[in-house]
Amino acid sequence: MKKIAIIGTLDSKGEEYSYLKNIIERQGLETLVIDVGIFDPSIEADIKNEDIAKSVNESIKMLQEKKDRGYAVEIMSKGAVKVVKELYDKGEISGIISLGGSGGTALATPCMRTLPIGVPKIMVSTLASGDTRPYVGVSDLIMMHSVVDISGLNSISKKIIRNAANAIVGMVNNEEVEDDKSEEKKLIAATMFGVTTPCVTKAREYLESKGYEVIVFHATGTGGQAMENLIDGGFIDGVLDITTTELCDELVGGVLSAGPNRLEASVKRGIPQIVSTGALDMVNFGPYETVPEKFKDRKFYKHNPTVTLMRTTKEECRELGKLICEKLNKTNSKTAIVLPLKGISMIDVEGQPFYGQEEDQVLFDTIKNNIDNKNIEIIEVQQDINDERIAILMAKKLIKLMENK
C-alpha cells in the first residue's frame, strides 16, 4: 500500500495534523507522521523528533535547553532532509505533505526539494501568496495558500486542509508510468525567452523529428537553475543553451538571475553543448518604477506592464563575453559557440529598439579573443538569432556533437 509522509511540528499543530492524517487514511492510504517540533508532541509520531535530531548528531534535550529557535529549525531541517531522503530511497514513501507558517515552511520544504521531480509534494503555507522562490527553488513542490493561519481547526482551515489532503491522495493514487518510448530517447535541455522563441521552437521541432526529446526551460532565473540542476543530476544528454540572458541579470543586477553557477553544469558533467548569445542585449526588471535610480539614464524597453528591459552597454557586453569564456574554457567536452552576427534577440535587429551593432560586436570580439580551449568551436553566422537557418544549424551541430561524444 502506498504511504504518504506527513511532516510537521507536532508540539504546536497536533490537532491540524491529526485531521490531515485522518482524511488521507479514510481514502485507503497509509501515512507516516514525522515530528520536527522541538517540544513534546500532542499526537503520536511514527518518527519522533528525537530521532530526527539524532540523525545529525544532536539531541532534542539540547535544542530545548538552548532556546534558540533559529538554530533549532536549522538542525531539525537538516535531520528531516536526511531522514526523508532515506525513506524515499528505500521505497517507503510515495508523497509528502506539510502544514505551516514561516517556521514550518522553512522546516518542511527542504525535505520536499530533496525528492525527485514527479514525487507529489504539497506545502500548505501562510507564505504561499508571497515570494515562494526560497521554498520552492527548482523543485516541483506545490505551495498552497492556507488563507488563514495554521492555528486550530475552523470552517476555513478545515476546507483548506481537506483540499490539500485530497490533492495529495489523488496525485499518489493516480500515478502512472507512461506506456511509450520517451524514456528511451536522449534528453536535450534548451533555454528560451520570448525574444528567442522562434529559434528555439524551430530547433526543438527539428530535434524531435530526429528522435530526441527536448525539454525547454524559460530563462527566468529559476528556469536556468532548474536546467543546471537536472544537468548536474545526470538527466540530460545534450544542451542547446541558446538563451544565456540570465548571465546579464547576475552581472548587472536584474531580477532574473540564475545565480553565479549558471553555465557550469555542462562543463562539470562533460555534456556536449551548443551555446549562443540569445538575449544578452537585455537586463530584466519589474515595472518601470521599480528600476533602480542608478540606471535612470539607460535605454529601456517596456516589454509589458510588469516587465522592463534595459539594454546592455558595450562594457557590460565585454564583461559578459569574458564571463562566458571563463566558464566554457574549463570544459573537456565538445562545445560550439554560435554567434548570430545580425542580432541576438528579436528586438536587437535593425529597426528594433535594442538594435546595437557596436555592443554586439564587442560581445562577439571578446568571445573570439578569449576562448582558448581546443574543444570549443566558434561559429559565426550572418543572420539574426531567430533566423530558422541558425536554428537548424545549431540543432544539427548538437546532434553531431552528441553522436561523436
TrEMBL record:
NCBIfam families: PRK02399.1-2
Domain of life: Bacteria
Pfam families: UPF0261 (PF06792), UPF0261_C (PF23189)
Record-linked PANTHER family: UPF0261 DOMAIN PROTEIN (AFU_ORTHOLOGUE AFUA_1G10120) (PTHR31862:SF1)
Protein name: UPF0261 family protein
Protein source organism: Clostridium senegalense
Residue ranges constituting the UPF0261 domain according to the UniProt record: 2-175, 185-402
Coiled coil: none
